[in-house]
Amino acid sequence: MSTSAIPQNYTSTRADSATEWIKSWLLTVDHKRIAILYLLSINFFFLLGGLAASLVRVELVTPQGDLMTADMYNRMFTLHGVIMVFFFLIPAIPAVMGNFLVPLMIGARDLAFPRLNLLSWYLYMGGGVFALVAAITGGVDTGWTFYTPFSSSYSNSNVILTMSGAFIMGFSSILTGLNFIVTIHKMRAPGMTWFRLPLFIWANYATSLIQILATPVLGIALLLVMVERVWRVGIFDPALGGDPLLFQHLFWFYSHPAVYIMILPAMGVISELISAFSRKRIFGYEFIAFSSIAIAVLGFLVWGHHMFVSSQSVYSGLVFSFITMLVAIPSAIKVFNWTATLYKGSISYRTPMLYALGFIGLFIIGGLTGIFLGVVAVDIHVTDTYFVVAHFHYVMVGGTIMAYLGGIHYWWPKMTGRMYNEAWGAISALVVFVGFNMTFFPQFVMGYLGMPRRYHVYPEEFQIYHVLSTAGASILGLGFIIPIIYLTLSLFVGKVAGPNPWAATGLEWSIASPPPTHNFDQTPVVTEEAYAYPEDAAAQDSDSWQAGSHL
Amino acid sequence: MATTSHEHGHNPALQHHFDTPEQQREAATLGMWAFLTTEIMLFGGIFMAYAVYRWAYHEVWALAATHLNTPLAAINTVVLLVSSLTVALGVHAAASGKQRQVVLLLLVTILLGAAFLGIKVTEYSEKFAHCAGYANPITWISGGATLEEAECLVPGQQFHFPVGHGAEEASSLPNIQRNAQLFYLLYFCATGLHAIHMIVGISIMAVLAWMAARGRFSSEYYTPVEIGGLYWHLIDIIWVFLFPLFYLV
Ligand code: HEM
Ligand SMILES: [Cu+2]
């Protein structure tokens, strides 16, 4: 029975009533539709977290606390941190782009467990509801790190609700990871060997390993804090015989690997972008692939670098410091390989590429300052200052969010079938880059000069940096709003993209945009490496270049 | 023109996104193994806490452990081990396509699981009865013999670890009440979490038994039984660690 007459894609609807249409989305098991559900909900949380950040930044314009009370300020930065970490950064790239692309890239019709995939989304939303209710009914003031004994004994804010939110969301993350692992192992198309996989897949595979191994440890740690809060028995409160360091160990055993849950998929996106817009095979494929795995493994052994000043033994501090240096090696390998890929490539400065180049620069700064922090002696000077705040924003915003935006732009034509406005794309990429640096670079300086994190009043000498930072944040905010506008508009007025607007390699570009529900009419058979761009792509491109072609 | 993706329409158990039953089976099994790893890490956190406090307060903890009901727990261990056997036999029966045997063995497993939980409830309620001042749950309800020496091992305001008869060296241990309470808190957390897993496991077994009774499985297709069995074995193994750590050491 053939129905090939009308071109159907995953967004086209067969529902005849509004309720049926809503059902066809909310009960879908199609990985592409679930990716869209995630896209919308994750962006919602991103805007919410951004709103909290704006309020924090506005408060910090003056050295006095004039917008909020100290208590309110604590709740505000906690809201920002919790939402951004648990409800944006951790799920962002795997749940949106991973969901959409993993089956397409490996030539499968769906993830291995489609219903589990839908369940993940519901768990994510369920966790989100808990976090939102907690925020609306008063908020939490512990910081996203939930340190005990403050969170377990002394804080009188909505700790339990928020932790439940993070706990539930954790299971969403675990199930996504599990689904990816099984899919990547078992669902690859014929000929799609491990070393023909796009590097985005390797990155998501490494991420998934971390998700299933580390997340449950956070789960149990949060559960124990909740138990301690309810029964008032000291698991972590030293006044009751508990050990607060145990909490920190369990927390960072998850939360350090969690930073790699955020950055590894981002690195995967960057490998795709750099190769596609240099029109060149990626340099050192195996090195990039294995460095993802190396980062995932080593990432489990460095959590103690968050605890240098916590009374953990100096000897373990030294060991953690040493292993922290080792993690920088695979990260650097990736940066060198991307740079080498650019060399003699046919580079076009399209929007996704601008984000990718921005990523490399910012990640270098973020990564190198990570090494400063990994040196015990330096860390003791700058720990709990804005230096740390700047470091992690360089990797998380400069890294993950740049890659997220770059990836959204790159795969936008595939997801929606439409092209966005390239000029606005380029402008907003530049706005983001400038705004970002203006926001966070001053924070390195003031942190080094001694401005502590998490305070809402501060000595006047730091005001200049705070004002700069808030000004930068306004620009950055603008840079996030512009894409929302032109991407939405593109759905209605965008040029029809066609299957492969970038002339890129990869199975996802071999099918229609947007893809049909079953992805591939015929299971594809893979016969070449990933990124099989012609050797002389650069020469060809320069020959055929004419005024008006894209840069 | 028939498309290749639909030529397997004849096998109802094969989901549309898999090519072969073999692929579907391997995916399900790998998924379960990955999930079990997650479970181990979840309990790992509790074992870690156990290790830290056992190290810090080993004398008090050794003493505290003597007030658990070891004979009941030993019976429970045997019950669980037998249930692992019945599950394994059930999987074997499923593989050889003996549907009635599968149903029977799964039902026996459910019974054993329920027996385990029953004994566990008895153990718990004994502790609660002590807090109320009674010797055991039955006298608590019917109002019989009371406890000679006050004891309350349920963590909370009332917690009281008895250091009475002849244990001078015990009462000299620093913070004995506090640290014994920590032992019991972890005991309740660990065994409670395990009990929740038992309840989930029993539900899974019930669904599997029902499916088997409806003739959903055959010697070609019995993956659910297989991976349900894996889950059950994991719960057993966790208990095999909990039992010596809390009751015996
Ligand atoms: C090149 C590798 C990296 C190294 C060597 C490194 C090192 C460090 C060190 C030593 C600290 C502790 C500073 C302190 O609290 O005193 C830290 C904090 C932090 N890092 Fe990194 N880091 C690296 C990459 C990353 C990445 C890729 C991310 C996220 C995507 C990240 C996110 C964070 C966060 C969120 C914190 C602060 C957590 C908090 O206290 O709230 N780091 N880093
Ligand atoms: Cu870290």
From TrEMBL, chain B:
The keyword Transmembrane applies. The chain crosses the membrane at residues 33-53, 73-95, 102-119, 182-210, 230-248. Keywords: Membrane, Transmembrane, Transmembrane helix. It comes from the Bacteria. Pfam families: COX3. One of its GO terms (biological process) is aerobic electron transport chain. Residues 30-249 form the Heme-copper oxidase subunit III family profile domain. Residues 1-20 are annotated as: Disordered. Its main location: membrane. One of its GO terms (cellular component) is plasma membrane. It is a multi-pass membrane protein. InterPro entries: Cyt_c/ubiquinol_Oxase_su3, Cyt_c_oxidase-like_su3, Cyt_c_oxidase_su3-like_sf, Cyt_c_oxidase_su3_a-hlx. One of its GO terms (molecular function) is cytochrome-c oxidase activity. It is found in: Cell membrane; Membrane. Belongs to the cytochrome c oxidase subunit 3 family. This is Cytochrome c oxidase subunit III. It comes from Oscillochloris trichoides DG-6.
